[in-house]
């Protein structure tokens, strides 16, 4: 009884510990699969499970696409590439680092808006490798200014487009997508083997940027290994076979698997698309066109909204200006009225003074007449009287002149009063005009809604090998060259931008802090070497034996 209870308890506890799962359906070009995923899983957990199930080792070439609100989206796998660049596991030159940082900011913040994205908004973001920051005598504000100047040029790009541009630029870095393996040649010299989507590359251990020699996939006939010896047979039989040794048999197996996977992808990209792939591409083009039209519509609506806001701001500014003019006119009118009142009061006082002086002049005239009429009997009295008469005449003359002056002053004051009243009338007329202007009719605006040949593999005792058939290899080479020419033409403008930024910050570089990678990258740039034109060298040296 007790044992049964204990068994039931253990079974129930085990049942409770089982995590909750849900079913996810994954469709590839070749098959359709279902996986049981735990609720706490993230998208990358599902991606890793799919890669393990399919046996994919070149996981950086693949991604998961899903639907969200009737929109196709991709699982964000660029974070891995970004982390490798920031951790300097993939070397990135300074000018390319700034450009990549601008696309990362576009993907995170959307379109640049000076009113929102003010100075210092990138202070907490990790956007540049520390080696790049230490290489130049530049402050964080100077780096932010250069990143923001390019960020502003990405206006209108959606977040997924910015992420795709980030990956397109990153894939041109010399170390992007390359798996390095330590090997030795027949002489025992230590070398590095690099395997990527373009082919096989042999590097000096101190220089992971520039391969000593490269073997493009379309120039390789056979890749095989036996025990620890690995053999690369070029398609041109006049070129010597390249052999090298690795430290472990397991490493050779891994190298061979990477070669098979990369060569398979190389061949698939050059085959005609299946009907399903064509339909997927057509749907992608339609979706892109729809998104483009939607962005254009939103841009038009945003532009109309900005224009309406500018018009509103202009009308508000004009109204404020009219109010200020009206206030000034009112103040001028009040000053004119005060001046007119003062002049009127002064004119009245002057007129009263003139009347008083006239009265005094009349009294003086009467006094003079009275004195003349008075008989002066004695000569002294006569002289005295004459003297008084003379003084009275002088006084009368002075008073007459003063009276005339006061009369003129009264006339002038009357004229000033009239001018003040005219000024008051003009001020009232201007105030009336301003008041009539401010009563405008609002602008009516209406916004209209705007709308296969695959390689063969053989396993003999302890050796593995596979052969690449040389059928249509010349045709594939021509296609590859054509693709390279088209790509270089598209990249010309981008390279000019990068060179311009490099020239701008070159004066701030601290030469003593340059790393070996920086020096190698500069030497490659001076020679005109890049990731894509390096693989042309074996063709030019195809008639000579390989000696490494």
Write a structural description:
- The protein has 13 helices and 13 strands.
- By secondary structure, the chain is an alpha+beta fold.
- The strands form three sheets. A nine-stranded antiparallel β-sheet has the order 8-7-6-5-11-10-9-13-12, covered by helices on one side. Strands 1-2 form a two-stranded antiparallel ribbon.
- Helix 4 (94-109) packs across helix 11 (473-506).
- It is rod-shaped.
The H/E string reads HEEHEEHHHHHEEEEEEEHHHEEHHH
- Beta-strand content: 5-15%
Quantity of strands, as a count: 13
Spatial shape: rod-shaped
Give the strand order, joined by hyphens, for the main sheet: 8-7-6-5-11-10-9-13-12
What is the overall number of helices? 13
Q: What is the percent of helical residues?
A: 55-70%
The biggest beta sheet, please?
A: 9 strands, antiparallel
Distance between the termini: 79 Å
């Amino acid at each position: 009884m007790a044992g049964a209870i204990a068994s039931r308890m253990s079974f129930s506890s085990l049942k409770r510990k089982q995590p909750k799962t849900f079913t996810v359906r994954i469709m590839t070009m070749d098959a359709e699969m279902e996986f049981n995923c735990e609720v706490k899983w993230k998208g990358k957990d599902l991606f890793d499970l799919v890669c393990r199930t399919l046996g994919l080792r070149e996981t950086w070439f693949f991604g998961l696409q899903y639907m969200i609100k009737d929109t196709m989206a991709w699982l964000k796998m660029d974070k891995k590439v970004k982390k490798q660049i920031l951790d300097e596991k993939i070397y990135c030159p300074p000018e390319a680092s700034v450009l990549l940082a601008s696309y990362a900011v576009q993907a995170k913040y959307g379109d640049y808006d000076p009113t929102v994205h003010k100075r210092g908004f990138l202070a907490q973001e990790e956007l540049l490798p520390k080696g790049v920051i230490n290489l130049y005598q530049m402050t964080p504000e100077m780096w932010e200014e250069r990143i923001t100047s390019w960020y502003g040029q990405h206006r209108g790009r959606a977040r997924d487009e910015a992420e795709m541009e980030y990956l397109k630029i990153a894939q041109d870095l010399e170390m992007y997508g390359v798996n390095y393996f330590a090997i030795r040649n027949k002489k025992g010299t230590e070398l590095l083997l690099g395997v990527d989507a373009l082919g096989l590359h042999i590097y000096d251990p101190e220089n992971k940027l520039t391969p000593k020699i490269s073997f493009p996939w379309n120039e390789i006939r056979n890749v095989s290994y036996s025990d620890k010896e690995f053999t690369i047979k070029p398609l041109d039989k006049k070129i010597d076979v390249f052999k090298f040794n690795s430290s472990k048999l397991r490493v050779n197996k891994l190298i061979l698997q990477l070669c098979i996977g990369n060569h398979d992808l190389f061949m698939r990209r050059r085959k005609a698309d299946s009907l399903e792939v064509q339909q997927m591409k057509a749907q992608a083009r339609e979706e892109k066109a729809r998104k483009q039209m939607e962005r254009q519509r939103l841009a038009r609506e945003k532009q109309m909204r900005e224009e309406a806001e500018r018009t509103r701001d202009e009308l508000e500014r004009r109204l404020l200006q009219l109010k200020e003019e009206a206030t000034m006119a009112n103040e001028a009118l009040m000053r004119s009225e005060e001046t007119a009142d003062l002049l009127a009061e002064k004119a009245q006082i002057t007129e009263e003074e003139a009347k008083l002086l006239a009265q005094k002049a009349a009294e003086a005239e009467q006094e003079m007449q009275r004195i003349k009429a008075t008989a002066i009997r004695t000569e002294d009295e006569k002289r005295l009287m004459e003297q008084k008469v003379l003084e009275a005449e002088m006084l009368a003359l002075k008073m007459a002149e003063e009276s005339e002056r006061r009369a003129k002053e009264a006339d002038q004051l009357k004229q000033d009063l009239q001018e003040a009243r005219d000024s008051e009338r003009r001020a009232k007329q201007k105030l009336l005009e301003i008041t009539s202007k401010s009563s405008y009719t609002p602008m009516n605006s209406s916004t209209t809604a705007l709308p296969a040949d695959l390689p063969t593999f053989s396993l003999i005792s302890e050796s593995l090998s596979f052969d690449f058939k040389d059928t249509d290899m010349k045709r594939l080479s021509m296609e590859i060259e054509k693709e390279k020419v088209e790509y270089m033409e598209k990249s010309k403008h981008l390279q000019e931008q990068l060179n311009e930024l490099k020239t701008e910050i070159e004066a701030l570089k601290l030469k003593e802090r340059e790393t070996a990678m920086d020096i190698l990258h500069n030497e490659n740039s001076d020679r005109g070497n890049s990731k894509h034109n390096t693989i042309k060298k074996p063709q030019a040296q195809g008639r000579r034996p390989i000696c490494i």
